[in-house]
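anyone seen this seq b4? input:
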Amino acid sequence: MHRVRAMTADDTARCGTICYEAFREVAVRHHFPPDFSRPEDAIELVASLHANNKFFSVLAESDGCILGSNFLDERSTIFSVGPITVAPRSRDHRVGHALLTAVLARSEHLRAPGVRLVQAGYNTRSMSLYTKLGFRVRAPLAVVQVRPLARSADGFDVRMATEADLARCDEFCTEVHGHHRTGELREAIANGSARVVIRRGRITGYTTGIGFAWALRRDEQRRCQSAHRQCGLLHLDWISRAARQRRAIALVSRTTTPNRLPAQLDVTGLV
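predicted toks r here
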């Protein structure tokens, strides 16, 4: 029998190790590169999420043994779930179900209009859990790895975002997607990863960051961020339509196309 409880700082090393092992086991089994290159990277991520008071962090345990963990990002209008991971030896015992139910219950308690997460489409084990809870596929996404082209586009100026840009970015995001992501943007501005694009004297787009950050080590993240001026702008708010549905829960799922390019599916459901 297992129980779900709040995570503490003392739990982050073990939860991070499980996070690394869980992602690696699934990825290698399906012949994909692991999301984390080292256990230390996953431990650092888990510790940083737990230390952020805008994240709700929980774990599942049995007889004092940690079985898995989950997070809820509460920084903006639409909440975000994950990473949710279960130790490989503890799968098929409803641990993931308990962890997901815990954060969805909190989302409902806080009256979040929507929740989203990113899911690897080849992980059919977890996909079945989400569909049981009423999730639906919404739209495709893709993970693409390329070298910066070191080019600029005439008439477009990309610069670091500042606090003064928040209001316009919120307006822009709400206009396009139906909700804002102020909390995430504010943190991205503080850590230097946010960028805005200026055309004809006004902001026409923004990004909180470019790159699959979980899989990037610090030196790689810095290189990716330094390339933003060269490779342009991506708006990563792919789950916006959930904001228009009452008590909607959204998921983004990655699948595989015949040429092995990881595509993603935007999933949402009602509970």
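The helical segments are 12-29, 39-51, 95-109, 124-132, 166-177, 182-191, 218-226, 228-231. Residues 215-271 have pLDDT under 50 and may be disordered. kinda curious what u guys think
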